[in-house]
TrEMBL record:
Protein name listed in UniProt: Transcription factor 25
Pfam families: Tcf25
Stored InterPro entries: TCF25/Rqc1, TPR-like_helical_dom_sf
Entries under SUPFAM superfamilies matching the protein: TPR-like (SSF48452)
Record-level GO cellular component terms: RQC complex
Length: 507
């Protein structure tokens, strides 16, 4: 349902409508007219909305699925070129100036949101993302659906990628805000836009949001429906999270004793299988949970350091992602006790040379989670670009540190991280004369520091002084930006007819 995309729906369920809405009665005087949207609630503090030059045509319909794309008008393309110039200048002031003239330019909103978030101004960062989503939603085609699961957007088109990223960033803000159920709906939405390619790898995140929002049956149903053609059991996050789902279902009070025993037996089986398939998960998980394992576990070759050192790099990334994201879900006392029992049982099976252990580690699967190959020890030798993109967006340092050099040594910008190598470009940026390089300002140094290959060559004293000046200048910039974004007003064009004309523009 569309209303499930509104976080107020979830907050009202937790705290009641009065606590969420308070005494928010709309003031009739000086009240702006806003188009009704599902994803965001436009704020009176926002600049007056005018269409920025984004449209959404329907490309084709095949077998009940509709394929759309966003398009940029000629005027919006010119603004986009200026934005790319501003990014290359390495000076956020230029982006702020661009946004002042074009307050609903998407990529400027995304990039400045990252700057605000890094400076821990979460409210402003979230506000900029919401404004970007509002701009997109006002451009939707009448047939485009957020919840039907039949609307598609090709990530290969640059105009579409900003919508994916805005949804992702909004989803993460919702999760941190304490709205995991709403965040889960956004995760489903992103996955539905391109379920085959899954360009932002929502399958590596959806289990976490389902557990956070206690949507256990949904996750198990997804696992059952998709396992045959997507081989989800070969992903560490699904292997462990589905087991955790069965465990929580067995603990629910409304479940009768017999059903509870069935769920617990299933949980035990799946957790032991997950530990056998991915033994390198255990020690990092216990470490983040601040749990000291038994000596019989740490000294055993199956779970010891060897299990992590022998992991292929791509599997190490997936392991670090899962552990860094979900360790808090495993810290509960009943869950940890259950994990301990399962670890001991797995060690018994390993010591007894259970053939199932060897079978799991050398299992051949005819169904492949594209584009991995079949055998477990070969499957994770290299990860596709969408997983690298997901790791960067996750900001989980352990996973980022395991990325290959070819990823970490290239510039990565927040408005389009790791763009596909086979992008479908609808318009190209004109070539221009490049001015001679000038000395970098402290803000230029800050923008360079957003890149993975940031490496200053100055002396330590100069770096310290630059860092101090940077902090002062950036704080002044953010204060000015907040003031500008909150108070910017545009002169109304002369009207030739009645006051209802503005409202008619939305039709």
């Amino acid at each position: 349902k569309n209303e499930n995309l509104n976080p107020e729906t979830e907050l009202k369920r937790y705290f009641g409508a009065r606590a969420v809405l308070g005494d928010q009665r709309p003031r009739q005087r000086n009240r702006q007219f806003h188009r009704s949207t599902w994803m965001t609630n436009p704020k009176d503090s926002w600049p007056r909305f005018s269409r920025p030059g984004i449209s959404m045509p329907l490309l084709e319909t095949k077998e009940g699925t509709q394929y759309f794309t966003f398009e940029h008008s000629r005027e919006y393309q010119q603004v986009q070129f200026k934005f790319l110039d501003a990014v290359e200048s390495m000076d956020p002031n230029n982006i702020v100036a661009l946004l002042q003239l074009n307050p609903y330019h998407i990529d400027s909103l995304l990039q400045l949101s990252d700057v605000c978030r890094i400076q821990e101004d979460q409210e402003m960062a979230r506000d900029l993302i919401e404004r970007a989503l509002h701009s997109f939603e006002c451009a939707f085609h009448p047939l485009f659906s957020l919840t039907s699961g039949t609307s598609r957007l090709d990530y290969l088109r640059p105009e579409n990628r900003a919508f994916y990223l805005a949804l992702y960033k909004h989803m993460m803000f919702l999760e941190k805000r304490g709205c995991p159920r709403t965040a889960l709906e956004y995760c489903k939405l992103i996955l539905s836009l391109d379920p085959d390619s899954d360009p932002l790898c929502m399958l590596l995140l959806i289990d976490f949001l389902a557990l956070r929002s206690r949507e256990y049956q949904f996750l198990l149903q997804l696992y059952q429906d998709w396992e045959e053609h997507r081989n989800l059991s070969q992903l560490p996050n699904f292997a462990f999270s589905t087991a955790l789902c069965y465990f929580h279902l067995s603990q629910q009070e409304e479940v009768d004793h017999e059903e509870s025993n069935k769920q617990r037996h299933k949980a035990n089986q799946m957790l032991q299988l997950a530990l056998i398939m991915f033994p390198g998960v255990l020690m990092p998980l216990l470490d983040l949970c601040t749990v000291q394992p038994d000596a019989t576990v740490t000294s055993h070759t199956f779970f010891g350091p060897k299990s992590q050192l022998e992991q292929p790099p791509a599997l190490t990334q997936l392991t670090a992602l899962y552990v860094g994201r979900t360790y808090n879900l495993w810290r509960e006392a009943p869950v940890m006790l259950w994990l301990e029992e399962s670890v001991q049982e797995v060690l018994h099976r390993v010591n007894d040379k259970d053939p199932r252990v060897e079978e799991c580690q050398n299992k051949v699967n005819m169904l492949i989670f594209s584009p991995f190959v079949c055998r477990r020890k070969q499957r994770y030798q290299s990860a596709p670009r969408n997983i690298h993109r997901h790791v960067l967006l996750s900001e989980i340092k352990e996973a980022i540190s395991s990325l290959p050099l070819e990823v970490t040594t290239q510039p990565v910008m927040g408005f389009d991280p790791l763009p596909p190598l086979d992008s479908l470009t609808s318009y190209t940026r004109p070539q221009r004369q490049r001015a001679g390089s000038s000395n970098e300002s402290t803000l230029s140094l800050f923008f360079r520091s957003l890149l993975p290959n940031f490496n200053l060559q100055e002396e330590d004293v100069e770096v310290a002084r630059a860092g101090q000046e940077l902090n002062q200048e950036l704080n002044r910039l953010l204060v000015a930006m907040r003031d500008m974004l909150a108070n910017i007003r545009f002169q109304e064009p002369p009207r030739e007819d009645n006051e209802l004309r503005d409202e008619e523009e939305w039709d």
